[in-house]
Amino acid sequence: MRPRRKSALLWAAIGALAFLAGVQALQLATTATVTLPVALGGAALVCLAAGGTAYWLEGRVGPAFAVPEPGEGDGPGGKEQS
Questions:
Q1: Do 4 and 58 contact (CB within 8 A), yes or no?
Q2: How far apart are CA 27 and CA 31, in angstroms?
Q3: Which residues contact 64 (CB under 8 A, 6 or more apart)?
Q4: Measured between alpha carbons, how far is 72 from 80 in angstroms, rounded to an integer?
Q5: Closest Cα partner for 33 from 43, 42, 23?
Q6: Residues 6+ away with beta carbon under 8 Å from 51
Q7: pLDDT digits (tens, 9 = 90+) for 11-58
């Protein structure tokens, strides 16, 4: 699996679990009740949004923060300068 896809899937899982934790905190702190289908539906939407956003952002912003492999570039550890 490619690292970008793996990262997006992990962020999707984090988003869904954070949403479910928030629903549980709401139910513990107040008298509000959220049914299981509503909570799981909301978690699925958050999962898709978080995963899609992470995948898109890593494609747009990720190259700016990429660490060059040893042997790339002209700096220390890169190509020999004559």
A1: yes
A2: 6
A3: none
A4: 11
A5: 23
A6: 8, 9, 11, 12, 15
A7: 999 999 999 999 999 999 999 999 999 999 999 999 999 999 999 998
pTM, two decimal places: 0.74
Tell me the CB-side half-sphere exposure of residue 66, using CA atoms within 13 A.
14
Residue type, 58: E
- The continuous run of DSSP H or E covering 5 comes out as helix 3-29
Contact 69, 26 (CB under 8 A): no
> Which tokens belong to 74?
């002209």
| CA–CA gap between residue 46 and residue 20 (Å, rounded) | 10
Hey, what are 70's tokens? 């040893």
**Where do we find the tokens 């949403």?**
19
Does residue 7 contact residue 51 with C-beta atoms inside 8 Å?
A: no
Q: Which two tokens stand for residue 73?
A: 């570039």
> For residue 1, which amino acid is it?
M
